[in-house]
Here is the input.
Amino acid sequence: MTPLFGIFLGTIFLTGNLIGYIWLGKISPKTPWMEYLIKILRGVLFSVYVYYAILFLDSVVKILGFGVLGYENIWFHAVSLILMLILAVFFLFIAVFNAPTVQTLISFICIVGFCIYYFDFYLPTIFIGEKDVLIKTPFIAIGILIGTNLLTLPLRMLKYIKKSTLDFDTLWNISEKVKKAINIKSFLVLWIFFMVESILQLEGLSILYWIGIL
Amino acid sequence: MRKSRIFVRKILLNLLLISPLFLYFSVVAAIQFSSAREKDPYVHWGGIDPHSEIYISWETLNEEESHVKYGISPGNLSFSYDNNTLVSIHHAKLTGLAPQTRYFYQVEDNGGNPISEIGTFKTAPNPGNSFNITLISDTQQLWGIGHYDLVATALGKIEDTDFIAIAGDVVQLPHDQKSWDFFFKVSEKFVNKFPIITVPGNHDGDDTDSFYTTYFTQSHPNGRYYSFNWSNTQFVMAEFADGGDVRKGVHENDLHYEWLNQTLEKGQNQNYRVLIFHRQIFSSLGNNEELMANLIPVIEKYNVSLAIYGHKHAYERFYYQNYTYLCLGGGSGLQNAYIRTQEFSQSQAMGPSLTFLEFSPDKIRLKTVTTTNKVLDQVEFVQNDGFLVPQSLGGF
Here is the structure.
């Protein structure tokens, strides 16, 4: 994923989360249907958040680490990549490292393995062509569909997922510590940066672009 | 009462959240739509011989006569072009020009009053002369408007270049007058200094009554593809704009391929042959297999020195089976969605960029820079065993 698309996607995620936070009130996780819903949401959130976290990290490593776009224009990409990195870490803590079960970690390793294979080995680059677009399209469509649905999920619901009475046999639970860093305030600050950077990127600029001119 | 207050507060918070993007797109649209219909004079020569002929085109709000004064010194515009036909889109064809000569020109109204600044252009140099040109592509602006503005500002700061080539997708909406007005408005930063040479892209419309045809291709004998010689270099401007142009077995496309073969055959006596078109052959966003199958054999058969295109919004240089392919999509604001580096990719970059090519009898030098003049790619192509081999000079 390129920095511009990463920053767009992050802006949509954060805006959706904040809108959800505003509109959805307190939901009791104690009702049976809500527990059932929470189970489903937990699975969906896990898959999507982990997938996009790996996608973001993949871009950060390849562009900042391996320099696939060169380093001359790095100030144009740096802020997008740093923001993508922060959001990826947020996603991973929300979905995985906050309070994982054994199943969570196994699923996480499977998704990481799939992503590494998919991004770097599946369809060797020399064979990329129109057929690649055809193969990718369903994946992208599913991603967009799930992503769009997620826009209405509030940050508050995430909190309730963790507080639910469902009996998850977690390996550890660092929710309280995580909440100090990942909360509505940090989402809001991150949203401001994503929004500003998105607009600047569309104009061919970036928050740190001017450092590159000096 | 309290509930309704909370409801209103929530609505306001939502509006606050979406307001930055809403405000941004509103401002962008307002700026784009406020571009004036009148266009500063620009020089181009699609379909004619730039050694002795060029077009000066401009647009006026009302239908007026066309008058141009021109000469080889800005203080002595001793020649004139006059056409009393009333038109709003003016195409003044200057003929009988001397090759390898810098000319100056100024457009005048019916009363002989100047209505433009003094512009300048150079006619094609004779064989054996070194020269340099600048290339960009995909100047279309979909959501933002600043990307092309940055590129145009950088073009305006160039000291000297013989012409600026745009490898298609000049605008996003080919039948939207405002898109063209905006393109020319931003291009005012350089059009009085450098001619614009274009090929059509998939966003420029494929019908003869599109604005692309109106502004750039009014006299092409073959429709929208043409060629010209510049010193010892043949520039072949082909029309691989949308997917349909690539296919063989379609009458118009077969004529195009036939023309391409014949034209490149005629160019065998030139030092270099540069093929410019729009649709990508190779790209980190995906290769065009049909174009690979149809065009690479032509490129190899006629020893095309550089194949240059856009369409995919990134800068990339490929070296494939002894031939160089350049993707110049850095003119566009909307970058590619993802990157997959190809095995034969030698350089890639994203963000606004422009590419300079310097032609001399023994080598071609390429330099791609950001709008702040940071070098993204720099390479020299030198003759080796009949092929132009790239030798990196740094950058990537």
Observations:
- Chain A touches chain B at residues 1-5, 11, 15, 18-19, 22-23, 59, 62, 68-70, 72-73, 76-77, 125-126, 128-133, 191, 195-196, 198-199, 202-205, 212-213 (CB under 8 Å).
- Residues 100 and 106 of chain A are 10 Å apart (CA to CA).
- The two ends of chain A are 28 Å apart (CA to CA).
